[in-house]
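Can't paste images in this forum, so I'm doing it all in text. The chain is below; anyone willing to post the predicted structure tokens underneath?
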Amino acid sequence: MEIKDKNLEELETICSDIRNRIIDVVSRKGGHFSSTLGAVELTVAMHKVFDVKKDPFIYDVSHQCYPHKLINGRWDEFETIRQFGGLSGFTKPKESDADYFVAGHSSTSISLAVGAAKAIKLKGEDRIPVVMIGDGSMTAGMVYEALNELGDRKYPVVIILNDNEMSIAKPIGSISKYLSKILAGKFYQGFRDRVDRNIVQKLPSGATYIAKKIEESMKLITPGIIFEEMGVDYIGPIDGHDLEEVIETLEIAKGINKPVIVHARTVKGKGYKHAEGQQEHWHGVGPFNVEDGTFAKKASAKSATAVFADALLDLARKHENVVGVTAAMPSGTGIDKLMKEFPTRFWDVAIAEQHAVTSMAAMAKEGFKPFITIYSTFLQRGFDQIVHDVCLLGLPVVFAIDRAGIVGNDGETHQGAFDISYLRFLPNMILCAPRDDKTLEYSLEFAYEANKPCAIRYPRGAFANLPFEASKFELGKAELLKEGESNKLFIGYGAGVNRACETEKLHNDDIAILDLRFVKPLDEDTLKSLACKYNDWYIFSDSQKQGGVASAILEFLNKEKICVDVTSFEYEDKFIEHGDTKKVEESLGLNPNQLVQKIK
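Text version of the structure:
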């Protein structure tokens, strides 16, 4: 879609068309909704002022990238958003040259812009990185690491701060908005440079001090002081839905030729009244009725997340030393229930996984029992803190790892494939996984009593109902669920137990099934005894093969010089695409019918 030569009226029509297209498709297919609707005018203005063919357009997280996709040649293909084999819900260079970088995790955009700006300067090119970042992403420390260098190096970068939820700094009436814009204009910028160069630097030291104090006092009445103090110019706040104002402001920012933040106030869900404002459930949605905003109700089993939340709530009521934290996902992890009942013992620290882990390490040292509840894909962001601040001292911190395994439509940036691999080699760490609701409750009871770091993984959605009576967890003890008459043994870990059971039902042989429960430490005695009876072992786990469950078992067998044939049905060495979970599993050859054929 070419918009460079469009006038304001035509651009506003394009904004309306984009909104209608997003509402139409997402209401039928589901996807990210309120944040992307709120960024329509900002996106159109970006493409009007800057050149996406040469300027890096960098979207933070990229929940708000749907208008960008529609402008850049994916209008018809937008029907496939987040569907298996279709468009990603995030920016993805494989889809289009207009997508500068893969995005799916928060707060990486300004670092990317700094790197791009360095490269542009070294190559002597006339390009400028343009960032769109939400106010939520500004809660992560990586943003300030990048701003710190950017303010020092002064590379030309335009950062659009899409403020749709909280005020970064409260403006002091209309005068603040007016002064902010004036201070960023070409006249003031040139005037300030001339004053500094021709007057302030030539004044006696006392007068220079006074002049500098006057300039600092002017900054104090603007809301962007934190950015100005870091060496980054600030414009705003502006109305992010006033297209003319946004275009005018971006033109000013582009001409400054220095790092600048444009603070734009927007409304989530703009243009669809049911989603407008602070309504978390409209962030990512399934299909809904456009007329009244109602969602199709589905009868569904209780999710593993809900089971975890209730079980942890019971523990917290019994034990006053139970505390917990999440990183910007209170409802997604179920911690919101505990924050409501125990507001002084459970916290949301925003998008700050590193801080979440280290702060809970200190609480563990003080005698509390912290439960750190973070999605598998996001816990990766706190890896160094797990190593240095938890495991090194062997502190009894519990990692409740939600969304372990395939998560579906969010795709390759969100799949919970790697937590076993990146936690298993850490000294002092215990790794366990429940197979159903009751064993999840038992795993939390076990973790509370454990005197070392302990990680518990569980899937998105609900566990299957399995016909086995649950028993309490004992450190490093597996559970043989079913004896078998054949020479085959199915070993399941966590939700993999269900896949093992489903596969066993479809197979003609009578096959033994073991719930491994612990991948660290392994139940070596049980594995030794089973090796005497079964010599074909098949491993079922929703995790990466490299460094995963089968790898742990093979290491043990090699150490003990035990010879059995081991086949892993874990994920291969690649990133897993987005789409409906069942279709993704089928593409990986992991549904039970496919597994039966492989075994035969």
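Confidence is low (pLDDT under 50) at residues 166-176. The longest strand covers residues 233-239.
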